[in-house]
Specification:
Layout (H helix, E strand, L loop, with lengths): L2 E2 L15 E8 L3 H10 L4 E6 L8 E8 L2 E8 L5 H9 L2 E9 L2 H10 L4 E10 L2 E9 L5 E6 L12 E2 L11 E10 L5 H10 L4 E6 L11 E7 L6 E7 L7 H9 L3 E9 L2 H10 L15 H5 L6 H7 L2 E5 L2 E7 L10 E8 L9 H15 L3
Parallel strand pairs: 2-5, 6-9, 11-14, 15-18
Antiparallel strand pairs: 1-12, 2-6, 3-4, 3-10, 4-5, 7-8, 8-9, 11-15, 12-13, 13-14, 16-17, 17-18
The chain binds fe (ii) ion (FE2).
């Protein structure tokens, strides 16, 4: 059964203060084209660049931003570079979930003392705009958390990057900030990673979903959501469970070849407008059949939006005892059925749309069937 932990994380002592998500870095096969995709399809603004023209000879990175969301698209030139090896094995995917901290050295030392595996030791980078301190720890799969201290930096992103703006006119779609980032881990590993976030980063267990909450004929998964002290960082961790056919989590693991980031949920305060713009830009969403809307108001009670508007954009609604939320999921954003996005608008609800799991997972299963991977 789903259980929502009621104790407010905000009042507990925060043993690992994190200000928020600093950036999310993807290793990709072609950073130039990935950057254009995020500008043209998702309405991100190009803000910074690092590559041969700025003195870095082996890698290239484009930084795009919308609201508080910052994505770094990184690739490399030589086939034996670790970035291209990562791309060869996993396809395009998330390498870094960067966490914004006040003191990166202290955060790193605490994390390693508490059992985190070091990815790299703290180091300082400087330019004429100041300095940034970076340190890294491993999490599930090949994903890492970079700890970013930027209180003494005034530049556009980070030392080494040059400001760069879009040649195209970018229309934002209203994305504001990262709501949550979901990790898929191997069968039996969910509790290990929940414990890692609790023990190492001082996160609290927010919600547990067991396989009875996921009620399609074929799909089975379990999920626990952990959240940091101020509640700004939420990491649901999924693992596959025994089902009649291959679950979406197993499909992800088969294609990504290890545990990794499954979806990134981004917040908007006008989901109908945001999704309309994304569709006009060519973003492809999961389809939920029209009969989903037949008894919607009986299930979720009164809502501000018109059912016709929600239906026309295929947006889903769920309610918990604090309010409701609106959400929709894109199809995977690369050829492998791995990473996708969730667009979410919260109207009081702190939960994750459990009432929509069945409709959503059936939608994913229809896609799996088309791919021949169910
Ligand atoms: Fe989600």
């Amino acid at each position: 059964m789903e259980t929502l932990t009621k104790t407010s994380a905000r009042t507990a002592k925060d043993t690992f203060p994190i200000n928020g998500t600093d950036y999310i870095e993807f290793y990709v096969g072609n950073a130039k084209q990935a950057a254009m995709y995020y500008q043209a399809a998702f309405g991100y603004e190009l803000i910074a660049y690092r590559g041969p023209e700025t003195g870095v000879k082996d890698t290239v990175s484009y930084v795009v931003q919308q609201g508080k969301i910052r994505l770094v698209l990184t690739s490399a030139y030589e086939p034996d570079h670790e970035i291209l090896k990562h791309v060869q094995l996993h396809g395009d995917g998330v390498k870094v979930l960067a966490l914004w901290v006040d003191d990166a050295r202290d955060a790193y030392n605490k994390a390693v003392e508490r059992g985190a595996k070091s990815a790299f030791e703290p180091y300082v980078i400087k330019d004429d705009q100041g300095e940034v301190v970076l340190a890294g720890i491993h999490t599930y799969g090949e994903t890492i958390h970079t700890l970013v201290e930027r209180k003494n930096y005034n530049g556009v992103f980070m030392p080494g990057f040059k400001a760069k703006t879009s040649l195209r006119k970018v229309e934002g779609v209203g994305l504001k900030y990262v709501d949550h980032c979901v990790g898929n881990v191997e069968l039996g590993d969910m509790n290990k990673w929940v414990k890692f976030y609790q023990d190492v980063l001082g996160f609290k267990l927010l919600i547990t979903f067991d396989d009875k909450d996921i009620s399609t004929k074929y799909t089975a998964l379990m999920s626990k959501v952990v959240s940091n002290g101020n509640g700004y960082i939420k990491f649901p961790i999924n693992e596959p469970a025994q089902g009649l056919k291959k679950s979406q989590i197993e499909e992800y693991l088969d294609f990504y070849k290890t545990a990794g980031v499954q979806h990134i949920a981004v917040e908007t305060d006008d989901i109908i407008d945001t999704v309309g713009k994304l569709r006009a830009n060519g973003v492809d969403f999961l389809y939920v059949p029209e009969n989903y809307y037949d008894d919607l108001l009986d299930r979720v009670g009164e809502i501000d939006e018109s059912i016709e508007d929600l239906k026309s954009q295929n947006i889903l609604v769920d309610r918990d005892d604090e309010g409701y939320l609106l959400q929709i999921f894109t199809k995977p954003v690369q050829d492998r059925p791995t990473l996708f996005y969730e667009i979410i608008q919260r109207k009081g609800a702190r939960s994750f749309g459990k009432g929509n799991f069945k409709a959503l997972f059936e939608a994913i299963e229809r896609e799996q069937e088309l791919r021949g991977t169910l």
